[in-house]
């Protein structure tokens, strides 16, 4: 950690008392691993095509000027077709509730989300707000209004 790294306050919620807090798994990891804080006796079964909000058991306070992005874990996506539905999910600096992860099973088999399973990763990043200025028309560009594949595949 360097002096420029943001400080994020974190609260472990009662239903996650035995789970570790999010952590970086390697010294150069960009994302903190998030764990499922589902009851040990009530895992969540994601059937193919289904989705669920999975609790993580913690809340946090990001400093102003930062966001946290909830992103999929590549291993779950590749091996099981399980990913974060709204990836990346954005957590704003003023949100103080429990962090939840919306998982979806795009695979062909049921997937069981068990207590303590690493389900997603959390990337803390700087963010800026834009100042919107209403104008009568926008400046011309070579691309213009072409979108959705207009520049090629």
UniProtKB/TrEMBL annotation:
<dbReference type="InterPro" id="IPR008181">
    <property type="entry name" value="dUTPase"/>
</dbReference>
<comment type="pathway">
    <text>Pyrimidine metabolism; dUMP biosynthesis; dUMP from dCTP (dUTP route): step 2/2.</text>
</comment>
<comment type="function">
    <text>This enzyme is involved in nucleotide metabolism: it produces dUMP, the immediate precursor of thymidine nucleotides and it decreases the intracellular concentration of dUTP so that uracil cannot be incorporated into DNA.</text>
</comment>
<dbReference type="GO" id="GO:0006226">
    <property type="term" value="P:dUMP biosynthetic process"/>
</dbReference>
<feature type="binding site">
    <location>
        <position position="86"/>
    </location>
    <ligand>
        <name>substrate</name>
    </ligand>
</feature>
<feature type="binding site">
    <location>
        <begin position="90"/>
        <end position="92"/>
    </location>
    <ligand>
        <name>substrate</name>
    </ligand>
</feature>
<protein>
    <recommendedName>
        <fullName>Deoxyuridine 5'-triphosphate nucleotidohydrolase</fullName>
        <ecNumber>3.6.1.23</ecNumber>
    </recommendedName>
</protein>
<keyword id="KW-0378">Hydrolase</keyword>
<dbReference type="InterPro" id="IPR036157">
    <property type="entry name" value="dUTPase-like_sf"/>
</dbReference>
<keyword id="KW-0479">Metal-binding</keyword>
<keyword id="KW-0460">Magnesium</keyword>
<feature type="binding site">
    <location>
        <begin position="73"/>
        <end position="75"/>
    </location>
    <ligand>
        <name>substrate</name>
    </ligand>
</feature>
<feature type="domain" description="dUTPase-like">
    <location>
        <begin position="20"/>
        <end position="152"/>
    </location>
</feature>
<dbReference type="InterPro" id="IPR029054">
    <property type="entry name" value="dUTPase-like"/>
</dbReference>
<keyword id="KW-0546">Nucleotide metabolism</keyword>
<dbReference type="InterPro" id="IPR033704">
    <property type="entry name" value="dUTPase_trimeric"/>
</dbReference>
<dbReference type="GO" id="GO:0004170">
    <property type="term" value="F:dUTP diphosphatase activity"/>
</dbReference>
<dbReference type="Pfam" id="PF00692">
    <property type="entry name" value="dUTPase"/>
</dbReference>
<dbReference type="GO" id="GO:0046081">
    <property type="term" value="P:dUTP catabolic process"/>
</dbReference>
<comment type="similarity">
    <text>Belongs to the dUTPase family.</text>
</comment>
<dbReference type="GO" id="GO:0000287">
    <property type="term" value="F:magnesium ion binding"/>
</dbReference>
